[in-house]
Amino acid sequence: MRHAGISILDTQKNPFGDTDIWYKEVRKIKKNWKNYVVFEDIETRDSFRIMEDFAHSLDNNRLRESLLDILQMKKPFANFKWKIDNSGEYRQRWFAFRDQRYFDWVKEQIAMFNRSEDNDDTDDTDEVE
Fold first, then answer.
1. How far is Cα 77 from Cα 11, in angstroms, rounded to an integer?
2. What pTM did the predictor assign?
3. Can you tell me the distance from the alpha carbon of 94 to that of 58, in angstroms, rounded to the nearest whole number?
4. How many CB atoms neighbour CB 18 within 10 A?
5. pLDDT tens string for the chain (129 positions)?
6. Closest of 101, 87, 12, 100 to residue 48, by C-alpha
7. What sign for the dihedral angle of Cα 81, 83, 89, 93?
8. Which of 17, 27, 43, 120 has its CA 20 to 30 A from that of 65?
9. Which residues contact residue 85 at a Cβ distance below 8 angstroms, ignoring those fewer than 6 apart?
């Protein structure tokens, strides 16, 4: 069975976010909380690894070395972003690469959830896809 997902603001990590825009979703989740699964945020080290993997995948030696150097400096996230934002065509390549890795990460979260459900020995579990 397929289920749709709902994404809401994590007020634990973002206490000053505007929760008013999430009112309907939060109410729906609170009313039926057993029907939802919480997925963990991607860790900083995993985001770093994605940037590193992207740099290693580049055919442009100059940009690859520049990005790898940036990742060893202070403020690697901000400096990587600045370099990518000013890298012409590689900016879109970065977004596509990053988005695919995020998508793969979410798929793995769903697979882990489904495996844990399979291990519960219940006959009435629904798979999330």
1. 23
2. 0.72
3. 10
4. 8
5. 455 666 776 777 777 777 788 788 888 888 888 877 777 788 999 999 999 999 999 999 999 999 999 999 999 999 999 999 999 999 999 999 999 999 999 888 888 888 877 776 554 545 555
6. 101
7. negative
8. 43
9. 91
